[in-house]
User: Fold these one by one.
Assistant:
Number 1:
Amino acid sequence: MPESVIHVSDLTRRFGATTALASVNLDLPRGAVYGLVGANAAGKTTLIRHILGLLRAERGTVRVFGLDPVDDPVSVLSRIGYLSEENDLPGWMRVNELVRYSRAFYPKWDDAYAEELRQAFALDLTAKIKHLSKGQKARMGLLVALAYRPELLVLDEPSSGLDPIVRRDILGAVIRTIADEGRTVLFSSHLLDEVEAVADHVIMISHGRIVLSGPLSVIKESHRVDGRVPSLAEIFVARAGEPAPTAQG
Amino acid sequence: MRSAAAAIAWELRQRHRWGLIAVAGYLIVLAAIKLVVVSRGIDIKFDSAATFALGVAVPSSAYFTYFIAIFTFGLDGDLAARQSMYPARMFTRPVSTTLLAGLPMLLGGIAAAALWTVARALALWPASSIEVPVIWPGILAVVLLAWAQALTWMPYGLPGARVFAVVLWLTTIDAIVILALHFEASEAVMAAFLLPQIPLAYLVARYAVARARNGDVPDWSGGFTWLARLGGVSGVRERFRSPARAQAWFEWRLSGKSLPVWVAIVLPFELLLFWVVGTSKVLLLKFVLGVLFTPIIIATFAAATVSTPGVNVDDSRGLPPFIATRPATNAQLIAAKLKTTLASTALAWLLVLVAIPIALQWSGVMPLALERSRRFAEVVGTPRAVVFLLLVVMAFIASTWKQLVQTLYIGLTGRAGLIKGSIFVTLTLLTLIGPAVEWIIETRRVGTLWNALPTIVAVLVGLKMSAAVWIATRLYRSRLVSDRTLVMGAACWSAAVFALYGVLVWMLDTPHIPRYLLMLLAILAIPLARLSAAPLSLAWNRHR
């Protein structure tokens, strides 16, 4: 049995009267691509923020690489590459400054790889981040998240609002990361065809509960209707719409 | 809603309904009391200036401050940001820029004028001998609010410029009004000075909103890169030797430049005053003191940019993921901020301490300053005079740094309610200080206060130390800082307290001030609880 990269046990989180996560249990072994899918406000980002230590578990536990991300942020975050939908890179920095600044935090930063990505993404070293287009900012965020070859790559709705070419770059990054043996990707997205294209495992979340979790091929086989294998989108509509019967469906 | 204007007015009213109800409630209660008292012919003489101030003027001033906050949309944005504080969501509405700028100004003007009218009516009692002007204070309120709106909505090229512009301009208007009162200007003269400013402020506000609506935000930072290079922290071309250095560079670029840049801008104007000193020693002393206080005053405003946890200073107060996901401890992030504030303070004071002698020399008042220093040395002795001057400068430098860091524990929480609440409490306390001092003097309670001073100071020390112990316990339990850092911090603080105590004993060697009081004052003066709480605040923000 491979070692767990992420282990979430009985995680519950409430924001006022809203239950964002309800007794979530999750165990993600190393070396696979996990697609996290769910409707808006299903709890995907809340789960990711717990994994990054940006939210403290109200109930239950979160362990990443066997560590509590709130208690030991340095050990956990130095091994995670993260790209958020918000893309809040500091607009006042130039591309070369952001590379230089980020490099200081990651001992495993690979200059050659960073330069390779920069050239592939056609990013001008002297350009200010605030002057980059949305797609270029996403590429810049990807560069910073990938250049130290993180053990765990977390992408929170990275393709949202981006054109197909940038989305292709992001998928390419996922594929590159998997190519490095033993690395793990947690990929949240609304674009189910993308998830279907790269994910080995799918975690479907609805109303703060995990309604479906398992290998993509197994899930698709188990939802076969009249001999036809449905798409992930069809399974999503069928499962995310119904009330969750158990914590882990 | 029958019109866009009505919808915007409704939104303003609905958003602040509880605050507005509180204001109206207070005024209604006051009016009811007055009605009862006057109708029953009860003989009450509200002719004490202090009673008038405490009963009506102080609450009205607080409400006026509140009006400024809501009608400038100051509660929605970041004062220190370069971007306009006018809510961007309103720019997409199908209404003209004239309406966007004019309507909040009109509503604010009506509210400010109404507040004055009601406050004046309530302040005057049948047997009162106080003379209260009829119109001009109301116009002044409208003018101050209009300028606050115009300058708040303007986009600026440097972080923190808005605070500086608003404070400078409103203070200038206030100063002119005080000067006019000093020369007993008539109501007509006051109105003639104030009224033309309303359309002027409107034009500036309209221009500001139009620029903001077009997304036009100037960038003046390029003009100050020389200053950043002078700081030696920016412009790094090689790789950072450690994450701590990288983070310190980040903080410098984000907020560290504000203080030295603003000091560099203000300083030449202040130093020009040396040329009008002539042979007046009093003027020279006043102007030098003014220059020395400048970094402290600017630091009070620059502190807003230091405690902004955002990546860009226009961010909301919550910690953005870019910073929150740095593989750095909360203590390391705070340490970078503290190092930056030290560098910022040092650079600002380097400018001041280099510029003063040069200005004294060029303006020809250096001999006057030297003569003054020589006389002081003759009275207290040369060693004592030198040490005294050094201590004064060190006290100014320490105060500047203290201003920059003492609100970190509030700003870093990222809780808008807490931040705005603390600003409101501070403004209210500042509003109360003047009348309170006046009341103490008028009612001849200075002696009582002096006698009670040790008790008051002891209570404050008790509160401070209790808070410090609670914070230290939390820091220890949460492992936010290492045991070594805790012990080192406590040792450094104790050393600073004893050093300050030694200085105070040496300087104030008089039987009238007991030594234990000096010790208590030293404990109060050295930052401890609020500074120690900064890592807890950041952790509360970072791991919500």
Number 2:
Amino acid sequence: MTLGKYIIPTEIIKLVRVGIVVFPGSNCDRDVYHTLQYTGHDPTYIWHEDHIPKYVDSIILPGGFSFADRLRAGVIASHSPIISDIQEMAKEHKPILGICNGFQILAEAGLLPGVLLPNGKQGFMCKWTNIITHQNKTPFTRTLDRGTRIPIPVANGEGRYYVDDPKKLERNGQIVFKYEYNINGSTDNIAGVCNEDGNVVGLMPHPERGAEPDINPYDHRPAMAIFEGMVA
Amino acid sequence: MQHVRESLGRDPTDTEEAIISAEWSEHCSYKSSKMYIRTIPNKAPHVISEDMDSGVIDVGDGYVVTAHIESHNHPSALDPFGGAATGVGGILRDIVSAGTRPIAILDGLHFGDISTDTHAAWLLGGAVRGISHYGNCMGIPNIGGEIGFDECYTKYALVDVAAIGFGKRDRLIHNRADPGDHVVLLGGPTGYDGVGGSQFASAQMDTQDRSAVQIPDPFMEKMVMEVILQVRPHLKALKDLGGGGLACALSETADSLQVGITAHLNNVHTRNSDMTPAEIVISESQERMLAVVDDSGLSFLTQACSKFHVPISVIGSIDDTDTLRVYHNNDVVAQLPVRLAAHAPPIMWPDRPAITPESPFTPPCTDIVQVLYKMLQMPDCADKRYIYSQYDQEVGIRTVRRPGLDASVLRLDNGRYLAVSLSSNPRHCWYNPYHGTMGCFEESCRNVACVGATPVAMLDHLQFGSPEDPETFWSFKESVRALSDYATHTGIPCIGGKVSLYNETDSGPIKPSPAIMILGLSDVNHRPSQPAPGHKIILIGQTQNECGGSIYHDIIQYTGGHCPRLNLDASLRNMEAARRLATNDMYIHDASRGGLGMAIMRMCLESETGCNIDLRSISDVIPARVALFSESHSRYLVSTPPDRLDDTLAMLQNTDAPYSVVGSFGGDTITFSDGKHQYDVDIEKAGKIWSESLERMILHG
């Protein structure tokens, strides 16, 4: 199968029906939709007050400012009606990915460990950085080698990851991505984590913003692999 | 009001007076400027000229790009966060009201000298946070713009915001209305904030009236935008509520659709229950849109509003009269002929050529190396990354080329690329408003050409002091003449713009500050190879003794000399040569603020390599400091790998553009020499000064 000039190995071609949850204030929903189509999947939008249709295999919570980040980023959205459906899917070991605000929502909903704190003095921060793949047993990192460097942009105001016991996360294999350089004071350079079962993943950087050659000035292939390698 | 009294044959009511004074303010009516700006060429086959809130061009394959520019200067000078944020909100609604989705924001910021003035630093910090807050929350990338500093903006602020939209041509909202259609107000509630904002913006700032500044709510705007984009096929007409609030929206809608409107103010959803009818009509509360819909459109719109929790009220209806009738508590509080309300009588101001600081003198010799280091530190030239990093530049996944050097580039859905640049140069415009303005026009075109795109449309934002001052008004007219001449010569149509007059401070009018935005199109995403050691540097264009109004003169605090003149033929010829090289993946950067010296240092700093430049190859008649710091137009620097040098020179020979090889990249210093003297700038030290100075000034004053 060929998409543009990139050849996708046949063993990973499996159309995944991905539900993109749209909250009021989500603003990366359309970007994720585009990237999923680009990587050969079948995306659909799901409004946060609706139920998740049965045919959906996987869920992505996109970035944005759900409910304008009022109170605390992600906290209001974590009480949306759709969250109970997402919790069910998590129990059924379905792949769930939270990007940026989506990660904040999953952390607020208790589906992922740790919290995301304000960045401190610098406030909102948009820049390109590298993250390193630390765990490749999740449905989103399975085609990446451990140690793979991913050039990727971050853009957030509350992206400083904090967790009380990073050693426990490390022991459980729950640290999925680490920043190459600690850009925002996150505990142990953590950029992304997963739940104990490994099917729910959250990360602060935006892989959908680095998954195509036009928009990634460095190397789009690793970020593209996060979507391309997805299986349900 | 005399004219109104005569036309009505009676005294106007309070509400009528409020409507008229909002609609007839300079800000809304353009009564001083309209007849001049109409002279700027605005037609081309790809321009869709309709009466919309934003300019529209056809970019092929059934797609359109919309664009608009305006400013929020008076509010930002009082409350930089709120003023700048609501400026972004207003410009985005202009894009949405054409039925297109905003895909980018640019901003042009001008403040007092932040290196000495802590108030100016506070204003800049606040404005940047406001723009960042609103744009980030809306999910619209900020892809660039320009920043300038000058003492003429002390205690004041120019906050220009521009936005770009993208959509399908067949989904544009072509404004129309039929009798019986509903007039609907949707979005945030109407409150006391921003009451009388337009009149406030059309007078000198002599009050500290913060209630005239509106309160930003990007979340409401995001919801309003999603509602509108979802139901756009069902909307018959759409108008953003900006300056002049309901008063302007109602009278301008009625006027442009040639219908009458009956409105009931009790139906308007308000934030405060005790507002008078006059306050309701002139409130400039943000995040509101006025829509005209038929019965089925209304039900779609109401449904969408309830999904997104956007307040909506049916405030009136369309009729076939030519009257704007406004009711409050069942009483008629205003009954105005639409033509009278929407058309302020034009004012002719006298003009007189201004005495400008141009002179035939040149300043004495200076320590060139010192000037180069100082230039890197000047807020005008320093690295702007500290500001850009607060803006989301990537959301929307269209950003191909980020803010920094030359134009920014977005990809479009039809595989084409849109290059955008915004430029201004108040120092040049102060020396010579005609050549200064033309220079801004060319500078934006140069930036677009540097990335290999062809300029296809221009938007202008003309910011001047009070038109009542004959010299200021003369410079305004000169500026318009320059735009007309350059647009005529290049065939680049003006698709929109804005005039902002009465920009005055305690020490008088601001310098003439036109800001020019250019949109360019390219079929390919060009990826030039970065300058690297060994690459040759070619200069296209001629360097004249034109240091008047330059950064160099600013540094040595000298006033005099001539500002750069533009030669129309050389402009087109050199631009085409540069664009052709860019499409062959050559790395091109134009020389502008700070002249060749700054342009070369920028290229070195971006690519972290030194260089060696022979100043004799630039000109053998002008002294080194002039060669380095003159800001002559139509000049481009090309970096070419040594194995492509012959190709590049051959290509240039075919263009008739003057050029010379001036040096090459490499080494740890940026070195300029003229045979007798050598001037060295240490690349590491230069990089540190350049990248740290702006943040230090904003945070620590």
Number 3:
Amino acid sequence: MAISEEAIVRSELRWAAIAIGVVSVIMLALIYAGLVHHINPPSNIERIDPKTLHLGGEFTEANLGTRVSADGQVTSRIVATQFTFQPRCIVLPANRRVTLRFATPDVIHGILVSGTNVNTMIVPGYVSQVHTEFTRTGELLMPCHEYCGLGHSEMSAVVRIVPSEEFKPDAEGKVACDAR
Amino acid sequence: MQEVPRGAFALAALAVGVLLACWLLVYLFVFLPRGMVG
């Protein structure tokens, strides 16, 4: 069997073109998802002192959970600790842009809201922020997905998505889970 | 003779094609439907 140099080079160039084509398809798909569907990795850079989270500012216990601000923005604040989320249950409206903000006073955690693209790390010293819009109602499990110690496997919270009509903030703009 | 290992190329292309198809299926039916995040 005689294989000429040119034939080999031609075949290899053809295969290189196919490989570049495959990579390009994947990159274009990601760019399309980012620009058209607004699916982007969370990239918030915001620092906070993990040692004094509970003493003042945004992540004091009274300020946690879902709150609707005066301009209508829905924000849910959650503190991740070893080995629980505070609060363990939050309520959010469907079909409305919401913001989730996380902080931790101890070690690195991570959250994932099952069935959605909400997925971020929570690093001590930083505030993690994710914007999203939930399209389906129901109770979604939000486990910690970054090993944070011996109790990591038991660490989870619930995100309850309710239809907009059922999302009623109280006088302070807060919406809590309550036993229902 | 201009002989190249066509069978090897066919097998490689099939394998890469299957992987790319799996990637596209997950992208279209799992990733995109899970909605916006940013």
Number 4:
Amino acid sequence: MPTLRDAIRQRPVALLVALAVLGLLASLAFMTVGARGPWSFVLPFRGMKLAAMALVAYAIAVSTILFQTVTANRILTPSIMGLDTLYVLIQTSLVFLIGSGAAVALSPSTLFLTQVAAMIGFSGLLYMWLFSGRAQSLHLVVLIGLILGVLFRSLSNLMQRIMAPNEFAILQDRLFANFNTIDTDVLAVAALSVLAVSAYGWRKIRTFDVLLLGRDPAIALGVDYKATVSQILIVVAVLVSVSTALVGPTTFFGLLVASLAYRMTGSERHAFLLPVAALIAILLLVGGQLVLERVFAFDTALSIIIEFAGGIAFIFLILRGVSR
Amino acid sequence: MPFFALGLAVVLGLAAWSIFVGASDISLRSLWESGWHDTPVQVLVESRLPRTAALILAGSAMAVCGTILQMLVRNRFAEPSTVGTAEAAKLGFLIVLILVPDAPIFMRLAAAAAFALLVTLLFLRLLRQLSLQSPIIVPLVGILLGGVINAAATFLAYRFDLMQSLAAWSSGDFSMILRGRYELLWLAFALTLVAYVFADRFSVAGLGEDFTTNLGLNYRRVVALGLGIVSIVTAVVIVTVGMIPFLGLVVPNLVSLALGDNVRRALPWVALLGAGLVLACDIAGRIVNAPYEIPVGTMLGVIASALFLYLLLRKHAHLT
């Protein structure tokens, strides 16, 4: 008997269309439900918020799936490996070292690009160090990633404590946006960066599929393995920087989205997988925010709920992997 | 033994230093000139002495807790924040605070410790049933479970406007310690002594239920005693100074690197090193950015997680 999943697998376009329609409906509702005050204020205000959320959702979904392709497993994600907190650490160190005055004097785009460059460098080093040939246990790698996250967070905390309070306020204000106070410049830079890496990645999308076969088969099929892996890592570093710059670290959202996308599609074709994951992410983020904000009047609870559900899902994934 | 005396001297030296470091300048001279009363003496008696005592008590108690857990679970990476105990204690305090807002401190403590004990027992039973061999699984799943409990606690705290309490429990900070606000830690100290007396039984219990019973010990009672001590001490430390992350993991491992695994020989060293490390971090936190303070939780968060990484990477050959 054909199940829903079989039906989906036979007609991938239908799934994409359905998700896109749901996402659009959620966005429409988000723009209009419970609006008080003139539309000339509500629409631009919520529009910015929506754009930022869509950007974050897209960045997290795509970076997670690409990262899992490179590391050849479905448990590791950039945020679990501490890349989000690494971005915060780089950000804090920058202000700590050059002072908030100099940091403010730079334009937001220069600042952002400097951070992205540092992020690419450090995450490349981190990756080389973690996966340098030796076959290590996956669980050890995950644990090391989690502890690295703690270390990066503690180091940032330490520097933020030592900073003068007004320097810290500037850091907070300038570098950590949230959905309610989004800087147009930062949003524009973020959108352009995402667009650039997406255009670049789209041309290579079939190569990503080949990578899933494993290192040796991919090389045998003529893929320049090292170059492709480095390129993917650069794309991941840029996307993680964008999402962290806009909302701060998220631990499990990427994992939830990627797992859902794999289950729904049952596909290993990136050209299908990536859009599905991005749409699921947008739907979850916009829909979740809509429900919590407008229906339950909880503003900041979404991240907590994601942390809760994502943590449980992750424990489940690990224990299931172990018991096999 | 001479080495231990040396270590003790170092910790006592740190304690003396801790008494004379801080925003308010007190020294033997200012004490003498004020004729042993007035402000300097007040600062000494009301703040510095209690703070130093609290540092020593909390540091040694948390380190010993880590050792007990590592023996009972037979896992080098067990400690209150890697088996769910610490987060469960926080959630326990929160629930009591919401349900019975004006409960006396001992009732709150008892409820939080009981809840922590329950969660730890369930967690360990779950792991045992899955019969997991990899030593990495305990800290990995434990830390994740802690995150899930923490999310639940954050949600409750957010809902009931208790975020401030939760933040205070989550990050170790001794700057608020005054006379009258740390004495519960002596209870933790007493329990640490009990743990020393029973140390051998805990290591026997770590060898399994059958083995323990063969030696004529009541397995369940020994495990309950050990986990009970750990839960109460963790709850006490959390409610008086806040969570001190990974201390119970790092200290016993460093001691066993140096001394091997003889628990009775190691425990005094563990207590000493735990106290010394927390003292040193607190003093550094008071000096680095004087006159402002950096909480112990932040300083130790950096040092202890770096040491944890070192232990993981150093050991990785044995772990995979």
